[in-house]
Amino acid sequence: MSHTATDINQAAADLTHAFNDADWDRFRSGLAANAVYSETGTGRRVEGVDAYLALCKGWKEAMPDVSGTIRKSIAGDGTVAQEVLWEGTHTGPMQTPAGTIEASGNRVSVLGTLWITFEGDKAREVTHHLDVLTVLQQVGALPG
């Protein structure tokens, strides 16, 4: 079955909304079983739905109120690109490839872009271009 740009744009938005709501069953239902996630700002790459869910849950542990607001979205040729404003409060331990950053209580507000490639109506590949330098500065791990 062919899926239109509108269909996959809505499917991509549903993933962001499910993350915001920490609705992990809904989030999982939008992913291909062999989904791959990569984060350019940290170099993290995970394969499979469970590994991707664990990574997302880790962000929610670090910032339980974190949510993404989709500012712009374009879709075509099986791919959706979203500009997302991520905002939350760093009240839990943040796991990073370099180690754990303890809670700072600081607010985080950072732009990222998600490039999501679909197989049918399921997200198969997600590449997150996240401004990690700004995140680290805002949580106090690096000088501003």
TrEMBL record:
GO BP terms, alphabetized: polyketide metabolic process
Pfam families: SnoaL
Name of the featured protein: Ester cyclase
